Recover the amino acids of this structure.
RNA sequence: GACCUCAUCGUCUAGCCUGGUCAGGACUCAAGAUUUUCAUUCUUGCAACGCGGGUUCAAAUCCCGCUGGGGUCGCCA
């Protein structure tokens, strides 16, 4: 049975690249009816933090990547020491200042990478150098090879070794990880051999680059999954975007659910070259998912963000929110945008600034006339409001557009937005009339 | 520097394995249609096989070299 793992170290937030590694592992496991294990690599006790672990598991859950098994390396130190002892006894390793170190043999190490094909290393290149960067030479004048630390002097196990022991003991069949691990692979293969374990299959996936094609870092954009979550991206959209970074089902289809992607998934189809992250494309995909959502579901999604921003309380008008969401569904790619564009609907003390009023360029008399007419519109809905509005325009022989734009401007503070009458309905009679009146006063 | 690795529009990619297609799709951008504005939607357009050799009737596709990018060289993971 196929068994894969995602092995983050809780020394920071779940990185977008890590999420993609987890995603590929998850898709492979599910596509093969295999299992997906979450292994916490917390051997560095000083850098590992409980809150980071929580953040990572929260993010994974949010993305919908559930695991079948879970364990922490910090609970397994005895196990690693036990196997290190075996290596000591067999003579494959030796002690050095309290550390257990694997003797590096001089040989060629080959492995078949499921994505890249055969990769060959020669351990003769793993040389030790002095501080000046010169190779150290042995008595015969050959470069001294760099041996691998298995157990550190403080008794804690080293990364590579835990990784090998765990992968072997938990019977991981496929190690799917970032290509930054390629150079670790030959060393780990030597460990499998020394331990007498069968090595798993390896697949090294390409890295994600930032928009400029450089290394992903906080400086060049959001890197933590939690940041995307906070910005109001939909998890299914992020997942959809991430799977497309370095993988394609082969045809023209791009929008797909995790389940349908799993049906088409194959490691063979993962690309070899690194992919640059594109916020534009992520936003476009997110917009597609936003538009697919029902008004009810979208209102559910949006409500917590509005609550957090203090725009609505626990007892908010649900029907009204659904109405707002309906109007803005095609006008938002993410929550930040939604919040920005709908702010005027929630603010009580909204007042059109002088600039806005000036560009509205309509007489105060006209605003107050409209306010009076709309005050009587009953019920205060799109149809009734529009009828009154058109009547008003007719009476004064004004072109609708000459009236619509200034009014939108003073009602919303913006010259673009949803239909004016729909806007008025969700704004409500009270705010609409009040804003028209205050515009009339200032004009 | 050494070793490993990668290379199709600005970006994500299909095609490469099993040579022969106007090199296809998506994002972005531009233009048009629809819309009271904007957005959505639809239509159209711009835009790529890094370079140089080979093999072949024929190369994006196979081989070699170059160039360029990325990764690793920790008692971090």
């Amino acid at each position: 049975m196929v068994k894969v793992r995602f092995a983050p170290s809780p020394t920071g937030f779940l990185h977008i690249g890590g999420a993609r590694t987890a995603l590929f592992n998850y898709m492979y496991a599910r596509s093969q009816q295999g299992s997906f294990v979450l292994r916490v690599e917390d051997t560095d006790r000083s850098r590992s933090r409980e809150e980071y672990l929580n953040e990572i598991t929260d993010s994974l859950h949010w993305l919908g990547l559930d695991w079948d098994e879970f364990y922490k390396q910090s609970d397994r130190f005895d196990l690693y020491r036990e196997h290190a002892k075996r290596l000591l006894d067999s003579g494959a390793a030796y002690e050095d200042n309290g550390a257990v170190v694997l003797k590096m043999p001089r040989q060629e190490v080959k492995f078949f990478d499921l994505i890249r094909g055969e990769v060959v290393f020669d351990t003769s290149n793993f040389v030790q150098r002095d501080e000046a960067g010169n190779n150290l030479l042995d008595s015969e004048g050959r470069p001294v090879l760099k041996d691998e630390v298995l157990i550190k002097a403080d008794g804690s196990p080293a990364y590579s070794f835990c990784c090998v022991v765990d992968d072997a003991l938990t019977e991981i069949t496929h190690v799917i990880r970032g290509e930054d691990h390629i150079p670790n692979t030959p060393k780990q293969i030597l460990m499998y051999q020394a331990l007498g374990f069968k090595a798993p299959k390896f697949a090294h996936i390409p890295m994600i680059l930032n928009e400029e094609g450089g290394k992903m870092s906080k400086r060049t954009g959001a890197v933590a999954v939690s940041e995307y979550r906070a910005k109001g991206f939909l998890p299914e959209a992020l997942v959809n975007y991430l799977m497309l970074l370095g993988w394609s089902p082969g045809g023209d289809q791009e929008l797909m659910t995790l389940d349908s992607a799993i049906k088409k998934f194959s490691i063979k189809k993962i690309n070899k070259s690194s992919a640059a992250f594109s916020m534009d494309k992520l936003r476009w995909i997110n917009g597609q998912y936003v538009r697919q959502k029902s008004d009810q579901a979208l209102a559910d999604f949006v409500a917590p963000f509005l609550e957090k921003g203090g725009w609505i309380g626990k007892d908010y008008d649900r029907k009204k929110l659904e109405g707002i969401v309906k109007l803005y569904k095609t006008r938002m790619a993410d929550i930040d945008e939604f919040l920005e564009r709908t702010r005027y609907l929630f603010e009580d003390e909204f007042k059109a600034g002088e600039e806005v009023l000036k560009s509205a360029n309509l007489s105060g008399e006209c605003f107050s006339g409209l306010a009076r007419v709309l005050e009587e519109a009953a019920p205060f809905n799109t149809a009734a409001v529009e009828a009154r509005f058109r009547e008003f325009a007719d009476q004064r022989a004004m072109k609708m557009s000459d009236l619509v734009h200034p009014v939108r401007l003073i009602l919303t503070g913006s010259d673009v937005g949803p239909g004016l009458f729909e806007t008025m309905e969700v704004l409500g009679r009270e705010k609409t009339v009040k804003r028209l009146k205050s515009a009339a006063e200032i004009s």
